[in-house]
């Protein structure tokens, strides 16, 4: 586990809320007895650390959730694989379905005959991302452990090093650069434009967007859930009179978004792995 | 607040940028997924391939909207 890099998404004391004065007055009038409504902020993702403070191994709640998610993956697969039988039981069946999905629908579909080589890596990435995303909807954990940029950066760097590595090993440095930066079949003057764009794409945008997409999705999902359930709490306990009815909408929306978050967690794991496979395929393919 | 002011906006106007930033990717996703559906309806036998390609495209379009989210927090 690597210490999360907090530089990219560091919280800034900046006014981001855009509200109208009318709404403020309404909320202030109804919420005077309680603490008022606290909208979720980016500070949610930087809880206080409780262990090894000041060292590089500083632990906070989210790091702990990550460790829990990692332990759960390992334990589940050990249980499923230890009593592996020819005719699979229920647990083994489920594990096999997951592994089969990565092999058939992601690896073989994009990588073709190269799939076997990269299958362990893609499987690891898929299940790591899936379980770390799903902690966002597990009660008491309540935060996706990929919502700090550190974990996605580690995974994206792994993919980055791998696809450049296999490309360079197969074609040599010159061949790899030629394959990626000089796409064939273009009129000569266009290369002035195309080559810098391709270079940025290969060496910067691919890993950056890979990490950013996952993190931003999880941050957005968490903020929506906090907003829904925070509003439910506020309307039910602190708002007066007829406004209490609004808490029902908050609760229904919160539950609907929880289901939506499960979908997003699976989808992001799929997309992360699929794009890794596509990038690997672009590096090892002959023609460009 | 004087009597002619109905509503007043406070806070960072840049936040509006994120709302605007979702427009383009929204239209893009609509066209992208709609076209993929059209293709699947015409040729159900290549549905798997179309779906994979669609998700790759979705990932590229989606990241544009998410950039808006991240810059909203940063700046």
Molecular structure report:
The complex is a heterodimer of chains A (about 290) and B (about 80). Chain A has about 290 residues and is mainly alpha-helical. Helices cover about 65% and strands about 0% of the residues of chain A. A two-stranded antiparallel sheet of chain A has the order 2-3. In chain A, β2 (about 50) and β3 form a beta hairpin. Chain B is mainly α and about 80 residues long. Chain B has a domain at about 30-75: Up-down Bundle (F1FO ATP Synthase). The model of chain B has no long low-confidence stretch (mean pLDDT about 85). The chains are: A mainly alpha (about 290), B mainly alpha (about 80). β1 of chain A pairs antiparallel with β1 (about 10) of chain B, so a sheet runs across the interface.
Query: Strand percentage of chain A, roughly?
Result: under 5%
User: Helix tally of chain A?
Assistant: 7
So what's the oligomer here? heterodimer
Structural shape of chain A: globular
SSE ordering of chain B: EHHH
What is the mean pLDDT of chain A? 84
Question: What summary fits the major beta sheet of chain B?
Answer: none
Overall CATH architecture of the domain at 29-74 in chain B: Up-down Bundle
What is the end-to-end distance of chain B? 29 Å
Question: What is the CA-based Rg of chain A, rounded?
Answer: 23 Å
């Amino acid at each position: 586990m690597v210490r999360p890099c907090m530089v990219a998404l560091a919280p800034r004391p900046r006014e981001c809320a855009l509200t109208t004065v009318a709404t403020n007055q309404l909320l202030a009038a109804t919420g005077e007895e309680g603490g008022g409504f606290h909208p979720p902020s980016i500070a949610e993702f930087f809880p206080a650390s409780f262990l090894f403070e000041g060292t590089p191994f500083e632990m906070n709640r989210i790091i702990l959730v990550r460790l829990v998610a990692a332990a759960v993956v390992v334990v589940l697969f050990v249980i499923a694989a230890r009593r592996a039988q020819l005719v699979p039981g229920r647990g083994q069946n489920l594990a096999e379905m997951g592994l089969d999905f990565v092999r058939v629908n992601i690896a073989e579909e994009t990588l073709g005959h190269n799939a076997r080589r990269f299958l362990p890596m893609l499987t690891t990435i898929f299940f790591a991302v899936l379980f770390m995303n799903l902690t966002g909807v597990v009660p008491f954990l309540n935060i996706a452990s990929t919502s700090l940029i550190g974990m996605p950066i580690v995974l994206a760097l792994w993919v980055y090093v791998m696809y450049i590595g296999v490309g360079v090993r197969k074609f040599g440095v010159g061949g790899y650069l030629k394959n990626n930066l000089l796409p064939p079949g273009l009129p000569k003057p266009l290369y002035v434009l195309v080559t810098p764009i391709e270079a940025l794409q290969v060496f910067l945008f691919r890993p950056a967007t890979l990490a950013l997409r996952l993190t931003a999705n999880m941050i957005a999902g968490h903020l929506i859930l906090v907003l829904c359930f925070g509003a439910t709490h506020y309307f039910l306990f602190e708002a007066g009179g007829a406004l209490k009815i609004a808490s029902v909408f908050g609760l229904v929306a919160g539950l609907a978004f929880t289901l939506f978050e499960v979908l997003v967690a699976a989808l992001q794991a799929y997309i992360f792995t699929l794009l890794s496979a596509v990038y690997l395929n672009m590096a090892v393919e002959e023609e460009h | 607040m004087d009597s002619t002011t109905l509503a007043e906006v406070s806070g960072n106007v840049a936040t509006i940028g994120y709302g605007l930033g979702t427009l383009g990717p929204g239209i893009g996703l609509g066209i992208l997924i709609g076209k993929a559906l059209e293709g699947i309806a015409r040729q159900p036998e290549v549905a798997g391939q179309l779906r994979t390609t669609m998700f790759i495209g979705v990932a590229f379009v989606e990241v544009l909207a998410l950039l808006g989210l991240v810059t909203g927090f940063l700046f």
